[in-house]
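Task: sequence design from structure.
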């Protein structure tokens, strides 16, 4: 573990979508990044898959200057009221401090409501999903598997591998043809990509 490297913070909350961040967190951890879970409070949460997670720390204890990235998975709660509004506000704090944020699925709607997508290129499940939030960034919506702009990564719920690709690229875990090979292996089951990763020692 590189002690000089700041941790990656993964937000966790009830109904979080287990499948959306697994590729990213697993390969960040394999590359030596510490992953710390962050709850709205320190109380345990339960994922959509029934996994019980006790957060490492509560949201109010997380400071952008102590982090290299904040990851926000989707969750039913994003569209069920204001319980996760504090998480979107924390994302605003991170972006204002120049620390990147990665949001997938319902988390993109949370950031839209917070106004964080109005001036950045972004994507999500479908454009009308975000339009329903009443946000002002519809003209910045991009039909793509994942988008990175202004320190913010966004993706839809069916693109966990593309989401991870953007994260791994942003943090310099893999670059260039190695990053492309990693994506082709896990997204396209391209067996030829494995040889590229093996040669680079990036399996």
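Answer:
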């Amino acid at each position: 573990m590189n002690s000089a490297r700041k941790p990656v913070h993964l937000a966790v909350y009830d109904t979080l979508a287990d499948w959306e961040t697994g590729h990213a967190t697993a390969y960040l951890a394999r590359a030596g990044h510490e992953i710390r879970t962050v709850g709205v409070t320190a109380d345990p949460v339960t994922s959509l898959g029934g996994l019980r997670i006790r957060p490492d720390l509560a949201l109010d204890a997380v400071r952008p200057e102590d982090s290299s990235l904040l990851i926000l998975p989707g969750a039913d709660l994003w569209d069920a009221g204001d319980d996760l509004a504090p998480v979107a506000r924390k994302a605003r704090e991170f972006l204002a401090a120049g620390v990147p944020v990665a949001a997938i699925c319902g988390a993109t709607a949370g950031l839209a409501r917070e106004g964080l997508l109005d001036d950045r290129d972004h994507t999500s499940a479908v454009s009308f999903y975000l339009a329903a939030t009443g946000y002002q960034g519809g003209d910045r919506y991009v039909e793509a598997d994942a988008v990175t702009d202004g320190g913010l990564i966004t993706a839809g719920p069916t693109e966990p591998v593309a989401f991870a690709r953007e994260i791994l690229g942003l943090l310099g875990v893999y670059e260039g043809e190695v990053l492309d090979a990693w994506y082709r292996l896990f997204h396209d089951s391209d067996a030829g990509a494995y040889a590229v990763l093996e040669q680079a020692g990036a399996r």
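Residues 155 and 163 are 6 Å apart (CA to CA).
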